[in-house]
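pasting Bcr/CflA family efflux transporter for the record, 404 residues
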Amino acid sequence: MTSRPSWQKPAIPFPRLILILSLCSAFAPFATDMYLPAFSQLVNHFQTDAGHIETTVSFFFLGLSVGQILYGPLIDRFGRRKPMLAGIAVFLLATFGCLLVTDINTFIGLRLLQAIGGCCGMIIGRAIVSDLFAQHEMARVMSSLMIVMSMAPICAPLIGGWIVTHYDWQAVFFALLLLGTICGLAVYFGLPETKPPHITASGNLLRGYLTLLQRPAYLVPALSGSLTQSCMFGFITGSPFVFLHHFGLNEQQYSWVFGCITFAFIISAQLTKMALRRYSPKQIFSTALLANSAFGLMLYAVTQTPHMWLFIIPLWLTIATLSFLGATSTALAMSNAGDHTGSASGLIGLLQFGCGFIASSVIAASQNGTPYPMTITIAACGLLGTLLWFSGSCRRSAELSARG
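structre below
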């Protein structure tokens, strides 16, 4: 780790740091994925249709996006611990509210609030890593986080499927309350303040965002990575219909298939750590983008196949590229954030979940009884992210050549 002058970084045991940040970052995948097997129960409970239930996913992504804007300047001004604890409290209150309501629109609103509280772990976790590590170390730490965090989207639907099979959908939200309580206690007792004293929010809360939006070295990897991460949001939103209705799986079978596909995260996160020993984040990011686009096109090509495993193979490979892309794009962007680390982390989250909300909404609005809404969205997100990155790289190369 590198040290800034006149400031001593807090000594946090690495395993404890990874465990606490991973737990807090697991709010989003657990709150998103654990209740997916309960979609049929939610339709019956709220006396509504599948489109409204899919909207509860879309609005959760919207809440994750909105929350990033709020936390960015706050954590530069008030530090990391207090906003983290406040976000966990909001998450717990909204989760409890979800258990009490009977109106679907109120439930959707509480899901939005739940996401705003729950996103604190992701954005503040990125800022803490940026506080403590340099770029190459940061990419390795992010990949270590992803190994642990990748267990969440695997375990969440499996746990949710088991809970829904033996109890009901409300038990899922009781489990989320338990998770939130554990995370709050872990942060309160085990995570010291890490914000360097020289980092302060400006009087104008938008100034940091405006500065970053005018900095291509930050914006291009952040937006390109966010577009490709939308492949996961498309998968989360579209997969219940594709596997439960199109391929005819039951809730427990769907949970296992979902876990099998997201297991790609664990493998690729470990491979990312190994690759970073030999290659730069930029090299890995560029290669993973090309792979993501190729696998996304393969998935689109097999959309109409009646063979589920032929469909799963390119989907699995597409999801596998996202660990490479997430760790390296974050490291590339955050290393060019300057003193706006909190705002930079918030803007990355805004871009990721904003793109995810758009992808999720497109799938929900274009549902036509086939897997096409999901496969087209996944392929398009990967292609757009790849085109943005390489066009931005070509432009920077041309500018450097002109200066030379």
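Residues 1-5 have pLDDT under 50 and may be disordered.
The chain is about 80% helix and 0% strand.
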